[in-house]
Amino acid sequence: MHASQCPDGGGPPGAWDVLVIGGGPIGLVTAWRAAQRGLRTALADPSPGGGAARVAAGMLAPVTELHYGEEALLALNLASARRFPAFTAELEEASGRDTGYRACGTLAVALDSDDRAHLSELHQLQLRCGLEATWLSGRECRRLEPMLAPGVRGGLRVDGDHQTDPRRLTQALLTAGERAGVELLRQRAVRLLTAGGRATGAQLADGTRVSAGQTVLAAGSHSGTLAGVPEEVLPPVRPVKGQLLRLRVPGPYRPFLSRTVRAVVRGTPVYLVPRENGELVVGATTEELGFDTTVTAGGVYQLLRDAHELVPGVTELPLVETCAGLRPGSPDNAPLLGPTALPGLHLATGHHRNGVLLTPLTGEVLAELLTGGRVPDEAIPFSPARFTPALQEQSL
Amino acid sequence: MHASQCPDGGGPPGAWDVLVIGGGPIGLVTAWRAAQRGLRTALADPSPGGGAARVAAGMLAPVTELHYGEEALLALNLASARRFPAFTAELEEASGRDTGYRACGTLAVALDSDDRAHLSELHQLQLRCGLEATWLSGRECRRLEPMLAPGVRGGLRVDGDHQTDPRRLTQALLTAGERAGVELLRQRAVRLLTAGGRATGAQLADGTRVSAGQTVLAAGSHSGTLAGVPEEVLPPVRPVKGQLLRLRVPGPYRPFLSRTVRAVVRGTPVYLVPRENGELVVGATTEELGFDTTVTAGGVYQLLRDAHELVPGVTELPLVETCAGLRPGSPDNAPLLGPTALPGLHLATGHHRNGVLLTPLTGEVLAELLTGGRVPDEAIPFSPARFTPALQEQSL
């Protein structure tokens, strides 16, 4: 334990300035950024880097993932996507590790006339939002990506939607955090500690009580279940299961695909993300089954069937891994970033499909919050206050 | 090294009576039976029990696997199937291990009218061969196995086609062999040794030369590639790749299936083998790709698609494992059992799809051959001599 350096003076002697609960990319970036600001920071996770990010595909796709009515989220996603190149450079420098960032662009295609109509509507929405996306004929799509199915009827070329490798990203964040002085407590936080109407840290699985001036709950899909968090503060986060496959593109088949390729097949999205190292990620199911991370015959079947319809040649590729993870879903599919009604407790959770994309911006937002600074404008709508009317009247 | 106990006196001093090359069920049963007969026996394999049997489903299905023109093979398969209950009892007693033998029967079903016509022809052939098989309507099939697809058009109930668990079988054979005195040489045999016009043992990967009065080549799909075997004696065995899935039936879904269920879907056979322990094996592809044991997206896709068509509820089950193995194929799909033109070298290979089924009979045949006894009549047509006309004129 270290002497308190808590900027608001709220921590008892012997406390950390900041305790981050959760070692996914969101918790790791928060801890790294906090430590960079001079805060004495600890992070609790039984296996940092081992959560949903191990399963995630790492698409950085604010444009192709645009949905009606989510313009505020679009602004947030774009703000983080803009930061990705500089963020990657800084992180790779700080950690000495490659993160697999690849400015490869994305091609979203339509396999039938219904899909084409939907994709065309998405294109109109993108243009209204001022985004760059180019409509291509089926022939033009196949010229870009010759492995595409002959039946592709058209597509959207989005050169700004890139990718990173979430497994390498979390490893780099782990190293950068440790180098910046983050203390990793390799245990699960089992209970939030409170005293005098404020959060004061957390109790770990072995019974250790970790005191901290400020606590950040960044436990992904588990954020809604931490004991000791007052009911009215508990984030409305639920697990949304995703199953995903990893194929390998053997040398003679490369590049196979040169950018992310995605489509909606029979109403279900499927995407193929080709990494520089020859890995080809195929994702992902979306299932509301609680805390279930079972890989099922049906999940794998759906992914293979849809990927095969989109890129028939995938059947030739080795299937290297099947896995399932839990996205932290929120009621409006957007994250909860900011203070709660319980002083000393911040949230950085509920990122749903966008956790990897939002890593740079989340780190910045939380660092500002933890040091009493000013959060970027784009993040203001995503205060947890939007789900707690009483708090909503206070300013962020 | 031990003093020679070789019954034909052919081994030099310091030699084993018998060296078995290959530690799959065929090699293991040969070694066990040889040791039981008092022969000093060694078996060379880098990881005994680790070959194709780890992938095999373990169907004991001479009746449902009957093919036109393979009546001699049918007699061999039936002879081994008849031995399975007593063999299992003896092996489980000798090893103290359960082998997962299950007298569950098999149901072969038709999913469309073409399939039904083919299945009906198979039924006529079975009846002509004096086999027991009962024709059932689609409704009767679903009464037996309620998880079957509603579209099932009819089926054949074969109560005599059972199953065993090849992984447990090989473990039991390993234990029984060691208890009977088989020496396991945990290395690959890289070259057959010959001297004075006869086989005299083998050289191992580390250079050790193992001398033996008689050598049995039981190396499965690798049997056709052992260095040092004269060209005219090398068995015409090739690898036939099979991919296979293991699902798990969670408690609430059991029994799910109560017997082996199989069908031909779009010309491709698929089978589901339910184990007592809740494992459900789905197999298998048949691919001629040389020594390739890659699990591919296409193989897994085909198995899941066909299993789903046969038993739609499989999609709910956890997918636990995907694997691929190499069957030892032979020109007539039948094994090579017996002496070669090279004195001192016997073959026990080329079992193709029937290695597990033929384990009991192969053990008996090889034990007789190694001790100068009389092989069972059913095995006589399967001498390697049938592929070497010069030898064919000699008696077995």
Automatic annotation (TrEMBL), chains A, B:
GO MF, one example: glycine oxidase activity
InterPro entries reported for this sequence: FAD-dep_OxRdtase, FAD/NAD-bd_sf, Gly_oxidase_ThiO
Protein EC: 1.4.3.19
Positions of the FAD dependent oxidoreductase domain: 17-369
SUPFAM superfamilies in UniProt: FAD-linked reductases, C-terminal domain, FAD/NAD(P)-binding domain
Pfam families the record matches: DAO
Top-level division of the source organism's lineage: Bacteria
Keywords assigned: Oxidoreductase, Thiamine biosynthesis
Catalytic activity, reaction form: glycine + O2 + H2O = glyoxylate + H2O2 + NH4(+)
Functional pathway: Cofactor biosynthesis; thiamine diphosphate biosynthesis
Record-linked NCBIfam families: thiamin_ThiO (TIGR02352)
The protein's name: glycine oxidase
Organism lineage string: Bacteria, Bacillati, Actinomycetota, Actinomycetes, Kitasatosporales
